[in-house]
UniProtKB/TrEMBL annotation:
One protein family per Pfam: Glucosamine_iso
Similarity annotation: Belongs to the glucosamine/galactosamine-6-phosphate isomerase family. 6-phosphogluconolactonase subfamily.
Pathway membership: Carbohydrate degradation; pentose phosphate pathway
InterPro entries (UniProt xref): 6-phosphogluconolactonase_DevB (IPR005900), 6PGL (IPR039104), Glc/Gal-6P_isomerase (IPR006148), NagB/RpiA_transferase-like (IPR037171)
Residue span(s) of domain Glucosamine/galactosamine-6-phosphate isomerase: 83-313
Gene3D superfamilies attached to this UniProt entry: 3.40.50.1360
Stated name of the protein: Probable 6-phosphogluconolactonase
Positions in coiled-coil regions: none
Length: 323
């Protein structure tokens, strides 16, 4: 993808500034609220999507099978023989969910990670999706963010802006970046406060089961150590069960200061895609999906990903090489 020359606007939107300008959605409230027992949520992944038959013909899918999650909810694993095939499938999956939630609730709340995920979304900025998706319904969040200025090379906002958001017509007021003028603690509190406002105004759904925000689609990457978001192996933040958004100042992956959604928020999602390419992830993938952990081994953070809704793994053949 040729990346257009990009200069960051002098005034970058923050979650707080966005909210102060963003009007409430004008749709009736009932059309925005999707109860957890609605038909859409009781359908299995294969009922909503027709699986392999809906894959792009050019896509070489090596395998897809249903897995049992710790919650008993079926999850799905897709393995592709190239990053290109993975990107094609991920674009179709995301576009289908965008249509689904835009029709059902008049909004589509999407949560991004940093890292290689953004490159994996590259097909969304190309035809047919760049033209067919109703981008005006998208509301974009980050599952974690590094506490750096938004024009810093380590910023997940900048990564997503440069590689994705600047190339599609998502409304600037629907992009919820952190307030980078605050400390890690302050930015986490600010993000949580603003999420509460978005739940109250029905932009973000809420889980009837957990009371935590229920995002429509969470797109997660995974590190070689099995971390997701900024929830790292052995860290006390793994057990955070009150806060929606918390902070870390000793991240083993640089930079050290970050904010992150907690597991209860991650696991209240309607859909989670775990997008995991690369050989460096093969051991953690095997531990999570292949029964690779011994009795004494510590549970990897990724093994705690068990959404209320549907979990789908998008793996390339290198990440799946030990399965
Ligand atoms: O900001 C971050 O660091 C992330 O959100 C992090 O959780 C990332 O998703 C994984 O580390 C995978 O990153 P890669 O896909 O680049 O390996």
């Amino acid at each position: 993808m040729a990346s257009a020359a990009f200069s960051l606007p002098s005034t970058l939107p923050t979650l707080s500034s966005t909210l102060s300008k963003s009007p409430k959605l004008s749709l009736p409230l009932h059309s925005l609220s999707v109860p957890s027992n609605s038909p859409a949520f009781s359908l299995s992944f294969s009922q909503i999507f027709s699986g392999v038959s809906r894959f792009h013909p050019a896509q070489k899918q090596l395998g897809s099978r249903a897995l049992a999650s710790p919650t008993g909810m079926a999850s799905d694993k897709r393995v592709f023989d190239s990053g290109e095939d993975l990107a094609v499938s991920l674009a179709k999956y995301t576009a289908d969910l965008s249509d689904h939630f835009a029709n059902k609730r008049g909004a589509f709340t999407v949560v991004l990670s940093g890292g290689s995920l953004i490159k994996c979304l590259r097909k969304l900025v190309e035809p047919p999706y760049v033209d067919s998706i109703d981008w005006s319904k998208w509301h974009v969040f980050w599952v974690d963010e590094r506490v750096v200025p938004k024009d810093h090379v380590d910023s997940n906002y900048k990564l997503a802006h440069d590689g994705f958001l600047s190339q599609v017509p998502i409304l600037p007021g629907h992009v919820y970046a952190i307030n980078d003028a605050l400390s890690a603690e302050g930015a986490a509190e600010d993000y949580e406060t603003c999420l509460k406002h978005l739940v109250n105004t029905k932009v973000v759904d809420v889980s009837a089961a957990s009371g935590f925000p229920k995002f429509d689609l969470m797109l997660l990457g995974m590190g070689p150590d099995g971390h997701v978001a900024s929830l790292f192996p052995g860290h006390p933040l793994l057990n955070e069960n009150q806060k929606w958004v918390t902070f870390i100042k000793d991240s083993p992956k640089p930079p050290p200061e970050r904010i992150t959604f907690s597991f209860p928020v991650i696991n209240s999602s309607a859909y989670i895609a775990l997008v995991v390419p690369g050989a460096s992830k093969a051991d953690a993938v095997y531990t999570a999906l292949g029964g690779g952990s011994s009795q004494n081994a510590e549970t990897l953070p990724v093994q705690r990903v068990a959404p209320e809704g549907v979990l789908t793994w998008f793996l390339d053949k290198d990440a799946a090489s030990k399965l």
